[in-house]
Amino acid sequence: MNEAQLETRLRLQQRLNAVRSHSDALGPLDLHAAMSAIRGEADCGGLPALEGLAQLSARLALLPGCRVAMAACLDYADDALGAQTPAEQQAVLAAVVVRLH
User: Fold this and answer.
1) Mean pLDDT confidence for 69-92
2) Fewest Cβ atoms nearer than 10 Å: which of 24, 31, 32, 95?
3) pLDDT class of 1 with cuts at 50, 70, 90
4) Rounded Cα distance, 31 and 24, in Å
5) Distances (CA, A) of 31 to 4, 86, 90
6) pLDDT reported for residue 61
7) Residue 5 CA to chain centroid, in angstroms?
8) Terminal alpha carbon distance of the chain
9) What does pTM read for this prediction?
10) In the predicted model, is pLDDT for residue 18 greater than 80?
11) What CA–CA distance (Å, rounded) separates 58 from 62?
């Protein structure tokens, strides 16, 4: 892993920690905006698992029950950040869906 990828992962981890620590105070639109920003950075950083998880989180933030959904998504964010293969990406997203079902 090169220096740029490590920096991207560190920035994303900081953003995720900020969302975790402020999620109770943020409204649905703020959660949606925060996760959309994370999705964009994950896309640029070549992290498809985190991009997919952030995209799902951004959508769920606008639905009733967003607090429970966001908590589930954020619980798997570290796994998504470390996912390297498409199979791992699918496993992370599947785990979130199963937890929410």
Assistant:
1) 88
2) 24
3) low
4) 10
5) 26, 26, 23
6) 92
7) 17
8) 35
9) 0.89
10) yes
11) 7
